[in-house]
Amino acid sequence: DTGVSQNPRHKITKRGQNVTFRCDPISEHNRLYWYRQTLGQGPEFLTYFQNEAQLEKSRLLSDRFSAERPKGSFSTLEIQRTEQGDSAMYLCASSSTGDISYEQYFGPGTRLTVT
Amino acid sequence: GENVEQHPSTLSVQEGDSAVIKCTYSDSASNYFPWYKQELGKRPQLIIDIRSNVGEKKDQRIAVTLNKTAKHFSLHITETQPEDSAVYFCAARRIRGSNYKLTFGKGTLLTVNP
């Protein structure tokens, strides 16, 4: 499968624990995005990388959230001291540069449940 | 920032009928408008998109129209089939600037009854 992959697909954790998610974008894509989706809502932008540079963070991304893309390939999203309000689907997407296609390709998501 | 409103939130049609979903956006600088289909438990997948230099785009049973003056765009699905049942999201972004992030509507749950 050459699409965007995410691991784990599901994560159940207790409040206060730290969790880390991984995203592997399509190999030639240098743009990578993280979105959060809660039930009945559209995806909401969290952060954006171009290569290894994190160029924007949403106000939704509190200090407990950190994202990295150290080599410009895969990315990780860490949530520290999880809260019940963090329960959501975390989606990763990637896209290429250039004007040929603007499509963002989404991964299957990581569903986080904080108990 | 950009704000996208989507209506209706749910839509139920009979197989073979047409379905129309409408979105409005607030940022006049937005010029790229994709539509994503998300089946239950699956990832969002792009079904059609339109750039602001055109007013309409078709792909078989799916079409999107854009009115830049009024800042609204619509998805039209003709001859609906049960497999069209899903949640549909509209989105908007600038082609350049704003770091390419998409702003999504809240989604429309389309149910096609056989």
Give the topology, please.
The complex is a heterodimer of chains A (115) and B (114).
Chain A: E1 5-7, E2 10-13, E3 19-24, E4 31-37, E5 44-50, E6 53-57, E7 65-68, E8 75-79, E9 88-95, E10 105-106, E11 110-114
Parallel strand pairs in A: 2-11
Antiparallel strand pairs in A: 1-3, 3-8, 4-5, 4-9, 5-6, 7-8, 9-10, 9-11
Chain B: E1 4-7, E2 10-14, E3 19-25, E4 32-38, E5 45-51, E6 56-59, E7 62-67, E8 72-77, E9 86-92, E10 103-104, E11 108-113
Parallel strand pairs in B: 2-11
Antiparallel strand pairs in B: 1-3, 3-8, 4-5, 4-9, 6-7, 7-8, 9-10, 9-11
Q: Descriptors for this entry?
A:
heterodimer, A: mainly beta, seven-stranded mixed β-sheet, four-stranded antiparallel β-sheet, B: mainly beta, six-stranded mixed β-sheet, 11 strands, 54% strand
**Helical content class of chain B:** under 10%
Number of H/I helices of chain A: 0
The rounded distance between the terminal residues' Cα atoms of chain B is: 41 Å
**From N to C, what is the helix and strand string of chain B?**
EEEEEEEEEEE
β-sheet strand percentage of chain B: over 45%
Overall pLDDT of chain A, averaged?
Answer: 92
Radius of gyration of chain B: 14 Å
| Overall geometry of chain A | globular
Structural class of chain A: mainly beta
Alpha-carbon distance between the two ends of chain A: 33 Å
Question: What percent of residues of chain A adopt helix (DSSP H or I)?
Answer: under 10%
